[in-house]
Amino acid sequence: MTVKIDVLVVLGAGGDLTSRLLLPGLGQLLASGQADGLTLIGVGQDALSDDEWRERVTRSFESGAAEGAEPSRVAAQTAWLTADVTDAEGLRSVIAAVDGTPAFYFALPPAVAVAVVKTMAEIGVPEGTVLALEKPFGTDLASAQAFNALLARVVPENSVHRVDHFLGKSTVLNLIGLRFANRFFEQSWNRDAIERVDIVFDENLALEGRAGYYDHAGALVDMIQSHLLQVLALVAMEPPSTLDPDDLRGSIAQVLRAVRPQDDDPRRSSRRARYTPGTIGGRRLPSYADEKGVDPENGTETLAEMTVTVDNWRWAGVPFTLRSGKALADRRKEIVVTFREVPHLPEGLSGRVGPSRLRLVLGPDRIEFDVAMNGEDDPFQLDQVTLSAEFGAGRLGPYGEVLSGILSSDPTLSLRADVVEQCWRIVEPVLAVWRNGDVPLEEYPAGSAGPAAWSAVPPKA
Ligand SMILES: NC(=O)C1=CN([C@@H]2O[C@H](COP(=O)(O)OP(=O)(O)OC[C@H]3O[C@@H](n4cnc5c(N)ncnc54)[C@H](OP(=O)(O)O)[C@@H]3O)[C@@H](O)[C@H]2O)C=CC1
Ligand SMILES: O=C1O[C@H](COP(=O)(O)O)[C@@H](O)[C@H](O)[C@H]1O
């Protein structure tokens, strides 16, 4: 059943996520005409005036280039409530201010979010309420299961939106069209034709003042447990019959259930490292261990790599390498599908040029297909050429897409309870061997390409 959301209540609205990502996305959505009539309420512990809050909302909408009558109306009418929403009285006062069906967006520290849901379970929420939760969703499998059970006491599963903004990225969504609307890809999308898949998200951003969160999460949990496994699921899933939430999320869950560390050996299928001093684009960075708020004893990695297999008929034996890290030289964000060499090259053609590779680049969105062709000068000598196409950035940014689903109470792009649990199940064996010290914590200078000889395919030259 689709419920129209009348009021978006942002809990923790004074924080970084709200101003930098959520409100710019909301502004875009309002400007696109897809959330007409919405009321916005900001809630936090700071005693802000309505005018101060309206000023913040206006600035954030501007940063998302959101203009037009609806963004202006919402920014002019929005209200700020000061409350501790873990407290029953505080939460009651917020619920009392809601006129219509609310979506509560938890832009709160994770432990506070759990406390608020406990309070909701005690005092109840209005009919039709939707809850939108940010990552990290739990800190391990057991805590994610407990949180899911708690949420189920408050609202039905389809009213819980576990946000993964990667599912709002246009290239990630394009995967669905590319795979299932082109017969020639889907026919060869399997172990017979594909040798390996690499999903790489290397950032040149460093810690950026987020030690409080990141030093307890690290690259594996921050990026692989959450986002990159979702990308893997879209690359590897079976074709859903429709894109409705049950079918799409069912296909995602099914494929994730088949994922495990390569050879069931978490020690040999994972690597970790952290950055030492270096320079990126003229910016001098200290070693991670010396960043403000970091406890070097935590042994947190800033670069993680994990190779998994998908143990089913389609993918048996094909390695999927997931890698993500911070403070790296190149912003390399791509899905690389490497095809097998042809079984026989006709005699008379010379110069093998390497395998065909499909690269889906995540921002600026682009698709590249490296294929072997007859050379220009000598038609019997092979050359590798790249067929490429740029995608538009998409009508909405990732948070605009995510909010569009939440405000139309369509959970298609949000993570189902069992999917989040599967993602924890997949990374837990690796976290365990890392905790035991069975995998060395390597080092790389900030601004480098990371330790040499790791397994992900090299970037395009
Ligand atoms: N920032 C980012 O880039 C991303 C963040 N996330 C996730 O989003 C969530 C929020 O992150 P972020 O915005 O960075 O965190 P911040 O710490 O910047 O903001 C959290 C806000 O919650 C408020 N708050 C804390 N406790 C309460 C309470 N009991 N009642 C009401 N308000 C409260 C805080 O106010 P006060 O300080 O006054 O207590 C603060 O304004 C986290 O789960 C994070 O993991 C996910 C992806 C990216
Ligand atoms: O969730 C997160 O994602 C960002 C990367 O996503 P982007 O869309 O901003 O490129 C990452 O930097 C951050 O560490 C992580 O928490």
From TrEMBL:
GO terms for molecular function: glucose-6-phosphate dehydrogenase activity; NADP binding. Pathway: Carbohydrate degradation; pentose phosphate pathway; D-ribulose 5-phosphate from D-glucose 6-phosphate (oxidative stage): step 1/3. GO terms for biological process: glucose metabolic process; pentose-phosphate shunt, oxidative branch. Residues 259-298 are annotated as: Disordered. The keyword ATP-binding does not apply. Keywords: Carbohydrate metabolism, Glucose metabolism, NADP, Oxidoreductase. GO terms for cellular component: cytosol. The keyword NADP applies. The active site is at H227 (proton acceptor). Residues 9-174 form the Glucose-6-phosphate dehydrogenase NAD-binding domain. InterPro entries: G6P_DH, G6P_DH_C, G6P_DH_NAD-bd, NAD(P)-bd_dom_sf. Substrate binds at H165, K169, E203, D222, K326. It holds the Pfam family G6PD_C. Residues 178-455 form the Glucose-6-phosphate dehydrogenase C-terminal domain. NADP(+) binds at D84, V85, K135. Belongs to the glucose-6-phosphate dehydrogenase family. Catalyzes the oxidation of glucose 6-phosphate to 6-phosphogluconolactone. This is Glucose-6-phosphate 1-dehydrogenase. It comes from Homoserinimonas aerilata.
